[in-house]
Amino acid sequence: MIYLTGDTHGDPRRLNTKDFPEGKDLVKTDIVIILGDFGLIWDRTPSNTELYWYKWLSEKPWLTLFLDGNHENFDRIDNLEEIGLFGGKVGRLNNSIFHLKRGEVYNIDGNKFFVFGGGYSIDKAQRVTGISWWDREFPNHAEYKNGLDNLERCNFDVDYILTHDCPASIYEPMQQKYDIRKMANYDLPKFLEEVKNKSQFKHWYFGHFHLNEAFGESFSCLYKDVILLGTRRQRERNDKMA
User: Fold this and answer.
1) What total of structural domains would you count in the chain?
2) Which of 22, 37, 49, 68 is such that its CA lies 20 to 30 A from the CA of 122?
3) Distance (Å, whole) CA 229 – CA 242
4) Alpha-carbon Rg of the chain, whole angstroms?
5) Helix, strand or coil for residue 15?
6) pLDDT tens digits, residue range 108-162?
7) Would you list the DSSP string of 140-208?
8) How many whole angstroms from its chain centre is CA 99?
């Protein structure tokens, strides 16, 4: 079983047994994936709060995987131990929590996933470089190339695409309904648009925008919803859950 949810920003309590009762029946071969802005790896050294949540997640019966978003301490994420897992490279936080790297293709439970983290912080001006903002939120050329190379190796044919940001063309329907700043002209949405146009996939899931909504038949933005892979929505979440 694979479940997906959106940005947790250092607080994964939505995965408790009350709000995520499905988790009680999972085992360590089952997986929950957080679509960026995991946010627990934040301070220069692990805080007591951070260590508490690591223990809390590690005691859950599933494996936790996360993409990087834009609100992460990339100095620490980039220094996680790199190991091979699911046919690709991951960063190991501990034996229950792993970082899915940009541009990798993973084989998980019989499904092929293309993964690409990163995003743009609209609050960048209010943050401090190296303390609460890192320029590694922007992917580099090597990561873009790695992504295209890995997709080419599988003939641009995967089951699912998981990202933090979304393709440039998905910004338009979001902006028609919500007060979302126009960021589609940055390199990452343009790159993801190229991936969209070249690739075959069943569904594309992304986070970043703090929305729980499907866009067409093939794209879903997740925030507080926790959904089963292959579905667009599972249930509404209470907006007061934060």
Assistant:
1) 1
2) 49
3) 23
4) 17
5) helix
6) 999 999 999 999 998 888 999 999 999 999 999 999 999 999 999 999 999 999 9
7) -HHHHHHHHHHHHHTTTB-SEEEESS--HHHHHHHHHHS-----TTSHHHHHHHHHHHH-B-SEEEE-S
8) 9
Q: What CATH number is given to the structural domain containing 116?
A: 3.60.21
Cβ atoms of residues 108 and 86 within 8 Å:
yes
Quote the CA–CA distance of 42 and 9 in Å, as a whole number: 9
In a domain, 236, yes or no: no
Rounded Cα distance between 87 and 160, Å, is: 15
Distance separating alpha carbons of residues 33 and 159, to the nearest angstrom: 15
Strands (E), the chain: 2-5, 31-34, 63-67, 81-85, 88-94, 97-100, 105-108, 111-116, 160-163, 203-206, 213-215, 219-221, 226-228
What does DSSP assign to residue 79? T
Domain membership flag for residue 20 = yes
242 assigned to some structural domain: no
Residue 79's domain comprises 2-228
Its pTM stands at 0.94
Q: Give the other-Cβ count within 10 Å of 238's Cβ.
A: 9
Nearest residue to 186 via CA among 70, 41, 67? 70
Whether 234 is in a domain gets the answer no
